[in-house]
Design goal:
Radius of gyration: 17 Å
Strand order of the largest sheet: 3-2-1-4-5-6-7
Structural class: alpha/beta
Strand content: 15-25%
CATH topology: Rossmann fold
Number of domains: 1
CATH class: Alpha Beta
Helix content: 40-55%
Shape: globular
Number of helices: 8
């Protein structure tokens, strides 16, 4: 029986790369997207081309009131598309970038970051727990910025720090169900995240390359491959923070 992964924010960036990496291992994907159905359909088509199955569902991870309906949609998809009542992997990936000096962070921006990066992760995982198979795996996406500090990222990095603490608690509490829970912390990656800063700004890209042991910024497939490996081959690892940054600021 094929494994099934739920990936939030699967239509682009690291979510898409992770979905494709898992699909190449035969893992089916239930992905979420915020509003761009065209991107979501393109990702589903790419997963199908890789030899696996995909269903894309709309979800705003900042709106916890929508989670109950989302879980019911997942339950229906599992039954009708896969003949199952549970799924195996959860990748909490959906997120937004934010850059502002500490003194200039607005409360409304802070609240949106909390809702997407921490509250959403907390309560979506909670709502999905009855559907996660015993022996399954949860992977939460953090950031290298939770380890090292760069001006302008205090709010965003604080949310990721909270996710890392949550990961350890989940690992402890879900251990009796043999559910492994870890954090993956990407470094600077060339995607459209945060307006494509790392990908499109030559100065930022050069700075990243200069402080990274591997001598370049990361690519989506660097992280996607790591996600697939952790979810599919690392069941005895739990409660850990795994940084995938090419050695940024080692």
């Amino acid at each position: 029986m094929s494994k099934i992964a739920i990936i939030t924010g699967a239509s682009r960036g690291l979510g898409r790369a992770s979905a494709l990496a898992l699909a190449r291992q035969g893992v089916a994907v239930i992905g979420t997207y915020l509003s761009n159905k065209t991107e979501a359909d393109a990702t589903a088509a790419a997963i199908a081309a890789a030899g696996s199955k995909a269903v894309m569902l709309p979800l705003d991870t900042s709106e916890t009131a929508s989670f109950a309906a989302f879980v019911e949609a997942v339950r229906t998809v599992l039954k009708e598309n896969f003949g199952r009542e549970s799924f195996d992997y959860l990748l909490n990936n959906a997120g937004i970038g934010h850059y502002a000096p500490f003194a200039e962070v607005r409360e409304e921006d802070f609240d949106r970051l909390v809702n997407i990066h921490f509250k959403g992760v907390f309560f979506l995982t909670q709502k999905l727990l009855p559907l996660i198979a015993d022996g399954g795996r949860i992977l939460n996406v953090s950031s290298g910025l939770a380890r090292f500090s760069l001006p302008g990222s205090s709010a965003y990095a604080s949310m990721k720090g909270a996710v890392e603490v949550l990961t350890r608690y989940l690992a402890k509490e879900l251990g009796p169900r043999r559910i492994a829970v870890n954090t993956i912390a990407p470094g600077a990656i060339e995607t459209d995240f945060g307006g494509g800063r790392v990908r499109d700004n030559k100065d930022i890209n050069a700075f990243v390359a200069n402080v990274t042991a591997m001598g370049r910024a990361g690519l989506p497939d660097d992280v996607g491959g790591a996600v697939a490996a952790i979810l599919s081959d690392a069941g005895w690892i739990t409660g850990q923070r795994i940084e995938v940054s090419g050695g940024m600021f080692v």
